[in-house]
Structures are given as structure tokens and as C-alpha cells.
């Protein structure tokens, strides 16, 4: 949430800022700004809107600098405006900030009593004032940051310029992610590595409380206590193309198409030479699973929905009671834990504040934790006792697709691995299912995208003008419906409710009228007839029904207006075919409506505030 970039070196900092910020826009995009050191002091250029609006500003074209910081914002304190955009200046300090300063009101009053006048409504300007106040005392940037940290409560990552420290950037993180990177032409700072892929691949993720001092030739680090730390640089395996659209009109479409490959990557290293599901390459051996008696899955948004799909596999195959919790609620109403409880935190970004808080809560309660994370070396991945990466590659579109898809594939494989390790599934079945996830699921995804291209567009055209619609399903299909409804809402702004098909008649069916779109999903053969009855119920009340069902449903007389058939060579094929269908339907609907698909209104990809 919010993107930070910084550079000091021999090159021109301004184009690096705009290039990096364009990549970071997925973290928030309501306003944008750059602060650059020039011969005449630090110049700040900022505005409401996107990076393109900033690029069109004359002041930016005139700017030349070798040391700058930049920011793209997702508003929390104060709406999107030129004034509230970062960077913010206070005295000799200019800073950009990700996160939230929780005690900003009290600090603002203290600063006002000292005569500080605030221009914006932001908590960030208050942080700048506190830092400047500390800097006035010592004249030492690191000492000032250390002192300010004692006063600031909340989560933050700062990139800071000081008037009288030319060619230097200071940075600190507490709760919000920040990385340093070194390139041939200088030193970099960013909220994530994707922004820096065009420039360098060698990076170091700052640890909590670490303070960095960047100059063009080196990065000096110290802990909040003042001890010097040597950064352990690592090289990312991501290529610069990973953060580009590769010929697709939108990142979301590219990422939907990357899913076949992503599924393979997510599960290949979890199938051993004998073809059995096995997570020992992740440092988790069979004995560990034997101690697990109960699972709590905790996550937000689509990751939570993946957890719901996964919980069905965990209960069906591994026979482990599994409950799924919304991360932001987990701490306030902590579920009862029994001996053998394992807490699984699922997060694509590895930085979601509520999921991280839930992880920390679980750890403080003494529960073993497992992170299922996509972005490597992120906070959740590092703090969880054990971690399984989903290997989906960088996901840029705000609405997740391959992130969610690989969370489901990993959970599916995990449930079979546990089932086998605990003797609840025989080797032949375990091998068969593992094989089907790796082979059938990717093929089914590709098959749906190819075969139903025109059908998806035809259905999306009918959905696009509507204001309300429903997804219904039973069993796993209901779990998929939750994500289906979220996808439509997120990117096409059509109000969509996901209902357990059998529950609709208990009140909500009163909303169904002539022409209301209802999309019914049926993935389990034994649940088809009951779902079909629910389809008839809504169809007879005028609903315009699309049925997504198995291709072995037989010669039925469908009461739906549109039917999409899912391959049934294995359960994996059916589930993943349905999964991609709901994503592409949302995509096509948003495209036809002309929505900003990769950057939907009000959203941000990585939500690092609680
Ligand atoms: C945000 C995103 C969602 C995502 C959720 C959890 O709300 O917009 O797409 O599912 O955060 O994100 P995570 O990175 O923890 O999976």
C-alpha cells in the first residue's frame, strides 16, 4: 500500500523515479510525487492523479537530479489532493511514507504548540515535523531518525532527504516493507523489488527498525540501537519482463494466461521422485503433519477465499478439522486452540498488515505457524515458523488471479500430502491426485481460455449493463463463488453476491427479478441435481441464468440461458477450469464496461495498513 522509490548515484534520478513509480502504481494510485535534490535545493513536484499526470508537468521536465525519492499514494489520512500527495516537507526534512502513524493527532498538537503550521491533512506531514524537530536538536540524520522512532507509533517505511546532506537518502522501516538495492550506477530504495528490476537485481530487505543511509557508492545500515549491520545482499531471480505486460492489454489478462505455468511451478517441487506429494524441499517432513490435529487458516480477501477452497480439501482428504478466519477479526475474537493446532497464514504479498498481525498474535499465543506466501523474503514469509512459497511470479494487477490460483493449488497438494503422510490416503490415490494437479489443472485452464473465448465475451456483454447479480453454488463451487463475486465487484463495480445455492431461497431470492443475472457453478457431480433445482427456482422468477457445470452432466435439459462445460477428467481439471472461468468473466465484463482493470478504484494491491 503506497509505493516508495529512491535513487542516488551518477545517473539521472528523475526518469528512474517515474519508471519505478509506474511499476509501483499497483500499490496505490490516487496521487504521486517526487522530491529531487538540485543545485538550488530540494524541489518537490507532486499532484493528485496518476504518474502520467505528473509526467505532463512542466516542473518535472525541467528537473535534473542525481538524488531523489518518489511516492505513489493510497489515501488514508486526508483525501487524494495535490497538497496531501507525498513527499512532505518540514524544515530541512523532505519525506515519503508508507503506513500509518497512529498517534499523529497527539503529535500534531505537540508540534503545533511548538509553532509548526501544517499544510496537509496527512499523518505523514506530522511525521516529517517530528523528524525535523529531532534533527534540529542533533543535526545528525541517523540520531534524529532514531529519536523520532521513539515518538512515532504505528507502521511506517520512510524515504528521507535532508537539505544539507546532498547525495544522501535515509530510510527506515517499522511494520511496512522497504528494500535497498545496489546497481552499477548507484544505490536504490523501494517498497518492493519489482520497481527496481529495470535497474538492478541485487537487493536487501530491511529488517524491522533498521535505518539505512544511502550514498551513490554504498549503503550503510544500523539497527535502532545504533549497531552497524552489514547488509546480506541477495539477487532476485525475477526478470525485468516479469513486471511488463508482454503484449497483453492488461496485466490481469497476462496473469490469467500465466496460470497454467504457475500451477506447474507451484506444485512441481512438491512431488517427489516417486510421484508422491512431499513438502520436504520446503523443510517440512512427514512427521510434522502427524502432529497436526486442527488447522486455522487466516487471511484477507482472495487469499481467504483460497483458504476456504483449501479447507474443503484439507477436511475431505487429510481429515483435519479446518476453519478459516478473516485476518482482521482473528485477534479480536481468538478462536480456541487445542493441542496440535496449526495456524496457516495465506498471503500473496506477504505484507498484508492484518494477516501479519494475526501471524504475530498466533505466535505470541505459542501456536506453530505456516505461511503460504508468493512474494519471497517478505515479512510474513520470514516471520512464520515454516513457509511454503506459491511461486506464482510477480503479480501486478491489483485483482489477484494467479496468486489466488496457486494458493489453491498449493493447498490442494498440501491436503493430499498430509493425507498420505498420516496414512489417510493410499500411495496410488495420492500419486494420482498429485499428478492431476500438475498435469490436468494447467491443461484445463488453457482449454477454457481457448474454447470459450467468444462465449465469455457474449456473457460479459449481458452482465456489463447490470447493477446487481448473483453467483450461486454448492460445496467447492460455493467456495469458488465467493471469489467469483469478489472479482466482479473489484474490477467491474457490479454489486454481486455469492450465495450457497440452497440458501438463496431463505430470503435473498426476493431480490431476483426479470433479467437478474445469476451464475450457477456446479463442480461436484453429486451436487448437480440440487444445484439445478436452485437454477430452476431463479429461472422461473425471471433470472438470466448462466450455468458453469461438468461436461459429464449428461443429456440434461438445461434451464439456463448459457452453459459452460467444465472438463471432468479429474477433480483438479474441473476445479481449475471453473476457477479460470470466473476470473475471465470478470475480466471481460470490466473490459466491456471500460473500467480501469489493473487499477480498480479505491483499491490497492498490498494492504499494509490495518
Ligand atoms: C488486498 C487485495 C486483494 C488481496 C488481499 C490480500 O485487498 O486487493 O486482492 O486478496 O489484499 O492480499 P495478500 O497479499 O495478503 O494475499
Low-confidence stretches: none
What's the CATH topology name of the largest domain?
Answer: Glutamine Phosphoribosylpyrophosphate, subunit 1, domain 1
Q: Structural class of the secondary structure composition?
A: alpha/beta
Rounded to an integer, what's the Rg over CA atoms?
25 Å
So what's the overall shape?
globular
The main sheet orders its strands as 3-2-4-1-10-9-11-15
CATH architecture of the largest domain: 4-Layer Sandwich
The set of bound ligands, ions and cofactors reads: 6-O-phosphono-alpha-D-glucopyranose
CATH class of the largest domain: Alpha Beta
Strand content: 15-25%
Main pleated sheet: 8 strands, antiparallel
Describe the protein's architecture and organization:
The chain is of the alpha/beta class and 610 residues long. The chain has three domains: 3-242, 4-Layer Sandwich (Glutamine Phosphoribosylpyrophosphate, subunit 1, domain 1); 246-443, Rossmann fold (3-Layer(aba) Sandwich); 452-595, Rossmann fold (3-Layer(aba) Sandwich). 37% of the residues lie in helices and 23% in strands. The protein is globular, with a radius of gyration of 25 Å. 6-O-phosphono-alpha-D-glucopyranose is lined by residues 300-303, 347-349, 352, 355, 398-400, 603, 605-607.
